[in-house]
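Quick one: structure for this chain?
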Amino acid sequence: MTFSDLPIIPEIQSALKSLEYVTPTPIQAGAIPPLLEGKDLLGCAQTGTGKTAAFAIPILQQIHQINKYAVPYQPIGLIIAPTRELVVQISENIRAIGKHVRVRHTTVFGGVGQRPQVAALAKGVHIVVATPGRLLDLIDQEYCSLSKLQFFVLDEADRMLDMGFMPDVQKIVRLLPRKRQSVFLSATMPAPIQQLASTLLHQHVTVMVTPPARTADRVKQSVMFVDRGNKRKLLDRLLADPSRSRVLVFMRTKHGADRLYKSLIADGVSAEGIHGGRSQNARQRVLNAFRDGKIRVLIATDVAARGIDIDDISHVINFDVPVEAEAYVHRIGRTARAGASGESITLCDGDEYKYLQEIEKTIGMSIPVDRDHPFHSVDAEDEELRAFSNLERKKKSTRGGKRGRSRDSGTGKSPRKETSGQTSQSSDGGSVTKRRRSISGKVRKVKPRSPSHSSKSSSSRSFGKRSRPKSKRR
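Got it. Here's what it folds into:
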């Protein structure tokens, strides 16, 4: 199937041809025909699969065919996205696809002055692409009315949930006319998102494209086990390789991202940070600099990363292992775009291994372990050894009748006896102090008990009620 096989008007077909759009992606092929028929749509597809064109083409075509003048402050199309970066990206796609049709649109988002946005609404636009917060502000000030709305799109619904925008989205939904066409798009479908979709859509068509947690095939993935205190040193070693020309580093918190990128700058690394706590102007400036190659390393959080649409990111480094497995898929999806290949490296300490296990379960594969670095942590990898030997521990091993699997199993070495914490006898019959590794990885001495003390304590054990000491008579 090609775009020429779809019932798209010549004006949009000409724009698609100039953009070199020939074959529709699965989400486009599944969504465009029912949307052109006026049906509601529930679409589940990952970022970068062509979702914007999937809803932009039908909406632009229908508004063009209505041939209605834009009314001041009363748009007939509304597209909601979670971040300014996504709003700008959607707006650019609408401009490119709709350059030959009579449809006017504008963007509305926070972090900048509202005067230009109000001026655009006053002139009249057909479509508004907005973030929830600023749109509600303009509605409260009576600069925008949704009473005449005919087309509504909620994009990246799961990210709206993650960012805490659901109350604002629900307020907007309550303001929509009952008769409208709705498009609901999300990369994942947790229970709250399914509930919202059921209230928003009416007799909708569902288009599911790829599993919600499928990683890019062209991304080379690896995990490095490292103690938390050595993560920064390992990152410095990774960045010392000049082949890592454009690197995106993910942190779990915005405070951690701030500390890391400022520390890298102090060490002479061309770095910047982007997260939800920075202003929209600062975020856009950083993204433009990263896209233009003026910044080599970009430190980001999951909240801000969904709007990063840059084709030539060579490496993604997970400084923090994400808590949610879906976030891992979105992170590494920032590389290997537009047919290119990429690499992702995850730095995992012992406390994060439970998240790594969930990621591997979700993506259906074991991420290869890279031990070829000076900061490899045996203690952090203990979690992996315990996971892989979980079944074996329930059975008696063929060696010595002991349970479990030793760290040296398969190498011809006997299991390390010091892990039991018991003392061994020397050749002259005396006891020898052993050394045992604790869970934290520190080595501590275990003081042996003397034979006489051991026998005395064992012989003095009693069963039943403990005798109480006799009180002195006064």
